[in-house]
What does this fold into?
Amino acid sequence: MTQDTDKSQPRRRNGRPRRRAFDNGTLRLLILQMIAEQPRHGYEIMTELEARTAGAYRPSPGVLYPNLSALEEDGLIASEAMDGRRKLCRITPLGQERLKHETAALETRTGPLLHGGHRFRHGAPPDIVEAMDRLKAALRRNFLDGDAAPEAVRAAAAAIRAAADRVEQLGAAAADGPAKDTDMTEIITRHRHEIHRRDLTVRAASDVTPQMRRIVLEGGGLENFSSLGFDDHVKLFFETGGGKPEMRDYTPRAYDNADGTLTIDFAMHEAGPATDWARQAEPGSALHVAGPRGSAVIAQVFDWHLLIVPCILLPPLRPPPHAAVSALRAAASRARASSKVPTM
It folds into this structure.
């Protein structure tokens, strides 16, 4: 299995980037397999992956949650809010069908890391490795042939569980030490996208407000379009009769992969190439779009988000997914500026 260096991942203390344990496709299938075993929360998936790799790999929230979102968008899993906040993920019939066809390939691609823990041995303290080797040797000597008495098996299993509980307590005690600064690479994951110039046409155009016009675009150029962050931006090209087209940056209002549409809201100013085009846009009108170049994905670890925006930006406001959002509208007068917009 090829392990490419991912510059978006956290770095080791020596400054070198960590290597990906799994490519995105393999990790997504592995997550699907774990959800098929039993419904799981995101945090449980991170913990279980760490356990199955003997501590060698634990995905950050910024890596895990975009993969869960992708699985849900593809109809392979479904999620429901539990405990007022956390989402419980369950596999769908379509996900079970996909997993049935991918099980053999998944075993081949994940076997070296999930079975053996060689990366853990390489990085673990020597005392821990020696203790693990002694335990495994004792288990092989006494239980490998299957002739051990049931009482001995139960006693050995109880001793191992007790040792595991004690190690967990030691780890929790260490975690309660001096607080550390939050590693933002664990909160925000940056994704790079291959840039394509996309030839699109208008499916629908409507006025959201007198100052905002909503354009729904479609076309084969949207194939492989990806917008993972709520504040991504694409570049729009407007022909004005000059030598080069005018370019403007816009944040997508929505992208519907199933419907094959990209929605963009235009603030209607007095003049300008974007305003002029949007004012005249009708079904069939052409528009060239490029990007987004990349996405910054915020992990779903916050209870809520606070966004402060000008009034004109409220209609196209695209809040982070799976989060409660409160928005404060900015206005000319101090009294109006303090008014609160209902939570979205």
The first strand starts at residue 77 and ends at 82. Confidence is low (pLDDT under 50) at residues 1-19, 332-344.
